[in-house]
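Appendix C: a fully annotated inverse folding record. The material below is reproduced so that readers can follow the format used throughout the book. The structure is listed first as tokens, followed by the designed sequence.
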């Protein structure tokens, strides 16, 4: 190595060290345990800037990585300490809200024993919560609360009992004569009927809106949206017919028979996130006589031609994250309005295809339903 080459190498190294030092010093060391940790567990942790820090005990492992996001995209390489713990911090701050993640130890995929688990990516994944500046709207507060109950309903079309979760608003048990509208709310691909309550806090969002007088009380029904299982990347193989039958011919009649509902089109809505939005669009176009309100949350858009000649919806709500395709969402609403439809678009600021987008979307959509 020549003197000139050596000098260049030293300068580059110093710049690299300086850059690393500046980045490291920029991370605020005010980390606290995530609100989704198992009882008594210190890790994972999050700081005031949205960085996440992980610590995994694996003394005999050769490599440990944390993969964040739906499907485990992205990765944070952990470094091993003399005590057998592997520790690492995300390279940058994460979006506000809920995130799935898993841990890869020597090539094997596992969940973090320090975190609670949530069903996503067709498996139970670890979850971490990055505190949001607007988290108050889904916070657990001292207000009247509704109930979320599990129901098992018969399905002749599939030959099996099926499960749904039903949110009934505060006062449902006491006001025996009152009947309520119903929102059928669908999860995304790889999730199940627990997602909107566990990850989305749909019940708390509704409790708080109702307590503030911002929305009409209504029932929410959340059921599993798959009748034929498909793998990631094979959504073209998904057939809507089976689920459409379960929803419109089995679940809705069961809910109307067992809950105090206003059982007509103008008091029935369907909405869904991601794949649930695809299901919503398809079923509402196939069965416009069943639902009067439509909601696509990061789940595509409607065009005026889609709705032309069908029973007119009372509301079309379309949303996405600011990091998704907001121009398409806003254009869809503009085109629908120009064609005479009551259409509303909403874009969640600085979020992508993730639950903070969908929490905010439900919060914006709920007050617009059943007017």
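Designed amino acids, in order:
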């Amino acid at each position: 190595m020549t003197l000139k080459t050596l000098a260049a190498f030293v300068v580059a190294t110093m710049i690299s060290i300086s850059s690393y030092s500046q980045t490291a010093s920029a991370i605020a060391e005010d980390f606290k345990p995530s609100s989704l940790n198992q009882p008594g567990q210190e890790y994972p942790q999050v700081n005031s800037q949205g960085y996440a820090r992980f610590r995994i005990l694996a003394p005999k492992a050769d490599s440990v990585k944390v993969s964040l996001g739906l499907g485990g995209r992205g990765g944070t390489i952990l470094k091993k300490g003399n005590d057998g713990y592997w520790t690492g911090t995300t390279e940058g701050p994460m979006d506000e809200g809920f995130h799935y993640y898993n841990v890869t130890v020597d090539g094997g995929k596992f969940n973090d024993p320090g975190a609670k688990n949530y069903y996503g990516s067709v498996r139970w994944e670890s979850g971490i919560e990055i505190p949001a500046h607007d988290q108050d709207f889904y916070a657990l507060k001292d207000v009247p609360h509704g109930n979320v109950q599990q129901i098992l309903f018969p399905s002749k079309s599939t030959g099996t009992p099926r499960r749904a979760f039903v949110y009934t608003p505060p006062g449902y048990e006491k006001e025996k004569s009152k009947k309520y509208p119903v929102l059928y709310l669908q999860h995304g691909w790889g999730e199940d009927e627990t997602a909107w309550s566990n990850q989305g806090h749909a019940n708390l969002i509704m409790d708080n809106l109702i307590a503030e007088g911002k929305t009409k009380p209504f029932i929410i029904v959340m059921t599993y949206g798959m009748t034929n299982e498909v793998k990631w990347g094979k959504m073209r193989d998904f057939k809507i017919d089976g689920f459409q039958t379960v929803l419109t011919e089995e679940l809705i009649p069961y809910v109307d028979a067992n809950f105090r509902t206003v059982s007509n089109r103008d008091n029935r809505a369907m909405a869904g996130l991601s794949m649930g939005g695809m299901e919503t669009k398809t079923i509402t176009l196939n069965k416009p006589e069943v639902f009067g309100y439509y909601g696509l949350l990061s789940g595509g858009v409607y065009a005026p031609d889609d709705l032309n000649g069908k029973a007119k919806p009372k509301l079309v709500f379309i949303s996405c994250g600011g990091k998704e395709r907001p121009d398409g969402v806003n254009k869809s609403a503009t085109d629908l309005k120009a064609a005479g439809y009551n259409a509303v678009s909403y874009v969640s600021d600085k979020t992508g295809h993730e639950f903070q987008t969908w929490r905010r979307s439900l919060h914006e959509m709920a007050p617009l339903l059943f007017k």
